Here is the input.
Amino acid sequence: MNELMLARLQFGATTIFHFLFVPLSIGLVFMVALMETFYVVKGQEIYKKMAKFWGHLFLINFAVGVVTGIIQEFQFGMNWSEYSRFVGDVFGAPLAIEALLAFFMESTFIGLWIFGWDRLSKKVHLACIWLVSLGTVLSAMWILAANSFMQEPVGFAMNNGRAEMNDFFALLTNPQFLVEFPHVIFGALATGAFFIGGVSAVKLLKKQEVQFFKKSFSMAMVIALIAGMGVAFSGHSQAKHLMESQPMKMAASEALWEDSGDPASWTIFAGINTEEEKNDFQIAVPFALSYLAYEKFSGEVPGIHTLQKQYEQKYGEGNYIPPVKTTFWSFRIMAGAGLLMILMSMMALWYNFKERLMEKKGFLRVMVAMISFPFLANTAGWVMTEIGRQPWTVFGLMTTSASVSPNVSVESLLFSLITFTLIYLVLAIVLVYLFVREIKKGTEHEEQAKDPRRSIDPFEKEVMQ
Amino acid sequence: MELSELWFMLVAVLFIGFFFLEGFDFGVGMATRFLGRNDFERRILVNTIGPFWDANEVWLLTGGGAIFAAFPHWYATMFSGYYVPFVFVLLALIGRGVAFEFRGKVKTRAWTKAWDWVVFIGSLLPPFLFGVLFTSLLRGMPIDGSMTMRAGFSDFVNLYTVTGGVTVTLLCFLHGLVFLTLRTVGDLQMRARELAHTMVYVVLAALVALVSLSILETDLFTYHGEITIVMAAFIVISYGVSAAMLGKKRDGLAFFFSGLGIMTTVATIFTGLFPRVMVSSLNSTYNLTVYNAASGPYSLKVMTIVALTLLPFVLGYQIWSYYVFRKRVDGKDMVY
Here is the structure.
């Protein structure tokens, strides 16, 4: 293993792990804010109970999301110092603004929300959770603006061998950003919704606190359907844009070695042979790729070999083919999981409408399993986006191998990789353990925690021993 | 003034703010071991910083982000050069962050005890490592002509940097103790005040040692000699006044002066560096400065507009959150 491989492995591992928690946080806090809004508007205690119960789970998740995010900010400098030098001018700005605009907002108002139930008026308290929600979205926005620059560099000029920003507005209107941002946010909302839906299904199967969890379930499924549709439409516009910005990623995600011919058919499954650079077999739907790429039933999509020749002419000798199998399959996992999510939320709403949810035990069990699907889709989506961009870190400007820190040794990298992996493993175990515990306890423990307002003098007795 | 100079000041302000704010919550984290006699007291201690610590830590993240945006070369050289120390900082901050959230979630002794240790180590390590980092920055690190730093163990760890690390840790510990005199009641408050009073003298001794070593090991007192001497004297006076105020039970003033001490200490480090951001021990022409490490003028201009627009709001709602939670933590309604 050399430095580059280890640095890539570490970046991949820490980023994927971090991004398990981010979408769940964004989705959950939005739902919690919605629940508290119902509480403030309608005045029904059940909504307050909902906000508190799901809020608890959100906080556990948020804590892990925040701490794993700290690594993300610093490892650009630690592991990718040449990249940081080259694009810090453009890439550092959104990161700094994220901290200034979003992190401060999230962290301050989450503190006010957790500790402020009895100290703030209902409306101010509600405003706090909405500001946290806004903070998470703004945070995603600036990160995606930065990421979009890596997919499609805009608003810069080459100066002294560095990419220097010359148009800030262009960064914020980057066509890549405009399709990527809604896709990620809708995906996050779907993640929160399916989490609430699945956990509610667990409780409904056990017939515990039926009214509470039925209400949570139906609310979640409405959001799930809206978000699912949003994911699909924004995903489609992203695919269409891919044809203009990164045709190689498109070709790789289709395992399209040769030009498709007109009209292009969409491959469902393929036996990809990367050694001989062809597919041993494939099952395809006619016309579908043309539609995906151009929104019409005609049009040829260029293949990997054609693009490789074009890229060689443009960027010089080299291998510009990303890992085809990974890109191909992660795209299918993402899209498949997304479609299933839309279908399941529709069924859920239908059963709910027909008042037949409680009899459909099998369906509820499937909904429990569905908790994992948004995570699968989110991860696969990023794997496709980032691996599909290889060998570039900044498309067309800088390769991954040129981005790595020259002064970080294999030993240092092994040390960090092992310690980060271990601590992440512990975090994951503790998190799941705490989730299961809180869910088992149900909503009752809220009352219990309030109950023993010990009036004894804390300094006289060993109260908690 | 050039924008890159302004940004150096802004980065300095962010780190001064970070040490002033997270300084006391690091200190409170350390105090859980020395001041909290049982779980209930430790819970009170943790709850005194409950609503604040997360936002305090963002000062560091914003400082890091500001360096990335305004001085990409500084960011790249420092973070890759200090790779292993930063791994420890990150591990500590990760553990500490979740420990606050997790420690109260399961009510068994083994569970809380384990997370209490994480809170303690996670609060002790970062200030120590930052102390090491800043003092070694002043002393100079082997940075070559391509702005790449390749340092060995003794560049990081030597008498001077360890003294720096210990001093910064002590400053934070004291600052946390004084903060606790403002946020607790009764016996706990009294013990915090007493320990703080003793700690002031330890801090003063450490500062004297650090200043003496700085004269030997760095150009801190020759490069900007006069102003540095004035600032060093100011630090010593601040802590002296803080001790006197603790003796008179004027805890608010004591906190103000210990805060002034810690802020001036950080300010002195940044003043001593300017206009350098990283000193090369190989050759002074390899120094990274606010001029050769900075972003382009357009980037700096955009960032300046954004920062100056947002800062008043950020400061406003942070101050408001301290106002909302101005009540002392007496153990009646605790979250963590």
